[in-house]
Amino acid sequence: MEYVYAAMLLHKAGHQINEANVTKVLTAAGAKAEEAKVKALVAALDGVNIDEAIKKAAVAQVVAAPAAASGEHKAEGKKEEKKKEDDKKSNEAAAAGLGALFG
């Protein structure tokens, strides 16, 4: 996941996402940069409109929100449990959206 974070940081900072830059970010963060993973990430992002992919990931999270709201009509005892499950599902949906961002 740190590879994706490195790419997103580079994108947000306006830097080119290439093998050298991703490796520098990972190294600066104290993470080990595996050459094969860096190459795979850069190749997967080639031609991807990251801004558009992020917008799609945000929409996926918004779609998951109504599911969380439906849990509020449950009994108080189950309400907390349901909310935790919905939060977990929402986080998983967001993570899945970000995963789709990179192929």
Identify the notable features of this structure and list them briefly.
103 residues; mainly alpha; 78% helix; elongated
Summarize the structure.
The chain is mainly alpha-helical and 103 residues long. The protein has helices spanning 2-13, 19-28, 35-45, 50-70, 76-101.
Total of helices:
5
| Parts with pLDDT < 50 across at least 5 consecutive residues | none
Number of E strands: 0
**Global mean pLDDT:** 80
Distance between the termini: 13 Å
Q: What does this 3D model show about the protein?
A:
With 103 residues, this protein is mostly helical. The protein contains 5 helices and no strands. It has helices spanning 2-13, 19-28, 35-45, 50-70, 76-101. The radius of gyration is 17 Å and the shape is elongated. The two termini are 13 Å apart. The mean pLDDT is 80.
SSE inventory with pairings:
Elements: H1 2-13, H2 19-28, H3 35-45, H4 50-70, H5 76-101
Helix pairs in contact: 1-2, 4-5
